[in-house]
């Protein structure tokens, strides 16, 4: 009869992908009148069991198993329903699948087992359960990551400890050359870092940028991790592939907190990178860095060191139009220094069309380097500094 409901009007896989499991359950209860086999797969290779595992629908899972659905069926990514359940953190679904014959260590297209997916899914109880069920813990995925790399990346402290205790090497490299300790620092995970520092033999390792662990901690802007590394004797003045120290990096990031910490531990304020830049040069090219410039000067930063192009920090500030930086750095002697092009900071500003710097230079001379409100251009400078 027209308009009468029929199971034949529905694609159960589409219904399941939309989360309508009440309809799926009704169809499964009447499977004998519906032209459908429980292991039918969609264009992505997903069966009803895959969809159920992703949604965490236990009642439908039981019906499918009763109807002899295959628990190890693979989709196009070679994922079993157990992979999907673990990735989505569905503990009860994973336990049931294992009870009904799901294999623990099937590799998907990324060469990851369900245990890898469980770590990614963030269900720590499920991860521990899989380990108690003797899931393989020493495999690597296609990116040559081991479980310990993922455990660190996903901040699973307990798993990191378990893996180390059962013998997983905390010094093992990923395909991109990272060790767990570097990942912990990038994630600013102090607790995991403490675990790894006691067991790692790669404390002096550097990444592809020649960043030390201290560079990474500065990049992460993690004061607590920087303090721990410094307490463990890490080199304050180590250089990256551009010759930059952690202090250069802290200034580049315009992180006053990191700069203060490194200077407190007596970082060398006048070391130059491979282009001749000191941290003060770096600060001079960054607008809104006035406090950092002031701090560097208080720690005896040399204003007369020249880059490969003969520029002192005042040249840099003038060239980029860093008003606040220029004010902090200005003194009469430095204003006459010429670079390899024969330009003073003022003439460099002129060549860049920066008339504000030119006017400021004149008025700073008149006011003996003072940048109080007596300077006529002060109001204009305040407007510029807010931009």
UniProtKB/TrEMBL annotation:
<feature type="repeat" description="ANK">
    <location>
        <begin position="242"/>
        <end position="274"/>
    </location>
</feature>
<protein>
    <submittedName>
        <fullName>Uncharacterized protein</fullName>
    </submittedName>
</protein>
<feature type="repeat" description="ANK">
    <location>
        <begin position="209"/>
        <end position="241"/>
    </location>
</feature>
<dbReference type="InterPro" id="IPR036770">
    <property type="entry name" value="Ankyrin_rpt-contain_sf"/>
</dbReference>
<feature type="repeat" description="ANK">
    <location>
        <begin position="275"/>
        <end position="308"/>
    </location>
</feature>
<dbReference type="Pfam" id="PF12796">
    <property type="entry name" value="Ank_2"/>
</dbReference>
<dbReference type="Pfam" id="PF13637">
    <property type="entry name" value="Ank_4"/>
</dbReference>
<keyword id="KW-0677">Repeat</keyword>
<feature type="repeat" description="ANK">
    <location>
        <begin position="77"/>
        <end position="109"/>
    </location>
</feature>
<keyword id="KW-0040">ANK repeat</keyword>
<feature type="repeat" description="ANK">
    <location>
        <begin position="44"/>
        <end position="76"/>
    </location>
</feature>
<dbReference type="InterPro" id="IPR002110">
    <property type="entry name" value="Ankyrin_rpt"/>
</dbReference>
<feature type="repeat" description="ANK">
    <location>
        <begin position="176"/>
        <end position="208"/>
    </location>
</feature>
């Amino acid at each position: 009869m027209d308009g009468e409901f029929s199971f034949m009007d529905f694609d159960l896989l589409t219904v399941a992908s939309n989360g309508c499991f009440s309809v799926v359950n009704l169809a499964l209860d009447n499977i004998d009148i519906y032209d459908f086999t429980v292991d039918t797969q969609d264009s992505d290779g997903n069966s009803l069991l895959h969809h159920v595992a992703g949604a965490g629908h236990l009642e439908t899972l039981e019906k499918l198993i009763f109807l002899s659905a295959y628990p190890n069926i693979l989709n196009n990514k070679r994922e079993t329903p157990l992979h999907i359940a673990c990735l989505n953190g569905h503990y009860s679904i994973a336990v049931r699948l294992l009870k009904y014959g799901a294999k623990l260590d099937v590799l998907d297209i990324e060469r990851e087992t369900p245990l890898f997916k469980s770590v990614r899914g963030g269900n720590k109880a499920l991860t521990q359960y899989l380990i108690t069920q003797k899931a393989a813990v020493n495999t690597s995925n296609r990116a040559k990551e081991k479980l310990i790399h993922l455990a660190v990346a996903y901040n699973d402290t307990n798993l990191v400890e378990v893996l180390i205790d059962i013998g997983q090497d905390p010094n093992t490299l990923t395909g991109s050359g990272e060790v767990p300790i570097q990942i912990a620092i990038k994630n600013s995970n102090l607790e995991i870092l403490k675990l790894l520092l006691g067991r790692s033999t790669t404390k002096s390792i550097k990444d592809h940028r020649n960043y030390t662990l201290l560079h990474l901690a500065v990049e992460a802007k993690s004061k607590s991790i920087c303090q721990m590394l410094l307490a463990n004797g890490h080199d304050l003045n180590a250089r990256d592939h551009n010759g930059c120290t952690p202090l250069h990096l802290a200034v580049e990031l315009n992180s006053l907190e990191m700069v203060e910490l490194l200077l407190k531990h007596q970082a060398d304020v006048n070391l130059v990178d491979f282009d001749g830049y000191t941290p003060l040069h770096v600060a001079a090219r960054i607008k809104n860095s006035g406090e950092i410039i002031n701090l560097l000067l208080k720690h005896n930063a040399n204003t007369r060191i020249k880059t490969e192009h003969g520029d002192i920090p005042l040249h840099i500030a003038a060239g980029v139009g860093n008003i606040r930086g220029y004010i902090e750095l200005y003194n009469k002697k430095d204003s006459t220094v010429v670079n390899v092009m024969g330009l003073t900071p003022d003439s460099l500003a002129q060549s860049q069309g920066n008339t504000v710097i030119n006017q400021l230079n004149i008025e700073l001379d008149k006011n003996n380097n003072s940048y109080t409100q007596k300077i006529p251009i002060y109001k204009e400078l305040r407007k510029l500094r807010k931009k």
